[in-house]
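Supplementary Methods S3. Complex input for the zinc ion-bound model.
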Amino acid sequence: MKAAVFYGPNNLKLENVEKPIISEEEILLNVKVSAICGTDVRIYQGKKTKGVRTPSIIGHELVGVIEEVGENIEDYFVGERIGVMPVIGCGKCYYCLNGRENVCANRTAIGYEFDGGFAEYVRIPSRAIKAGNLVKIPDHISYEKAVVAEPLACCLNGQRKANVKMGDVVVVIGGGPIGLMHVQLAKIAGASSVILSEPIEHRREKGLLVGANHAIDPNQVSLEELVLSETNGLGADVVVLAIGVPSIVNSSANLLKKGGTLNLFAGFTKGVLSEMDPNVVHYNEITINGSASLTRSDYHKALSLISSGQINIDAITTNGYTLDAVEQAILDVRDGKGMKAVITQ
Ligand SMILES: [Zn+2]
Ligand SMILES: [Zn+2]
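Predicted complex, serialized as structure tokens:
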């Protein structure tokens, strides 16, 4: 089968590799659509290494159709349309037992420890099947839309941590696909105003299209002044940092009103520190938290938001890539060309 094999930083090769053979406890999925995540870009650049094997097939945002089921599998059938939750919690560590399966101490994931979606076929390991990581996709949702369930689920986790409430003023920093999902989810959660900060013009336009009240270029307009004028001088209730730039963590915290919450949603380059004024946290009683990955419940919620048409997916995706063009798709995402690159096979 055809697969994009990752050999190390900046080294991804399209190759013919052996089609996976499944055991009686496993499922073989014919990948229909996969998508490029910001994390794939960081893996490609060598900025994210945890769980990444070389050589291996990466790609953790994938949907497909069941090609083969192992003899002992009872709940899934050939021909079913399936969305894959990539993170497999162990189910028994401290975190899994305390509602944080997304940060499981023994976490493995498809696209990391197990070969991922930038291939014609993916072997779904039995622990993923037993844990309920395969979700049937309703017939009326296209694969191209369903593939967004995984990143959208991650954003739902972030929104929960950011604690957006009705009437809140929310700032989203970064208008890539993730930022624009946060804009939409904040509006659904009841934000009275969402301010998007994004230097690329076409992304600002898309931000307004999906419901942002303001979309500004931070190099031209003072985000701080806009936030103050929108909030009677108080500051934002919530700031979501949807780009992994350590040097703006402090200024993001400064946008908050007292008691506000900053969610560090995007991952940062390993080992790069950021400078903080601890008095902003202390005197303003702000909360800074993070969010990593998704829970199974987030995935189900994401799929139902997509299914009910509440998320504008066309605005946040760029279609038309094929498996042969995975590397180009990663480079385009890196360069901010287009939005989430969706690969149809
Ligand atoms: Zn992802
Ligand atoms: Zn666990």
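The pocket of zinc ion (ligand 2) is lined by residues 89-90, 93, 95-96, 104-106 (CB under 6 Å). DSSP finds twelve helices and 18 strands in the chain.
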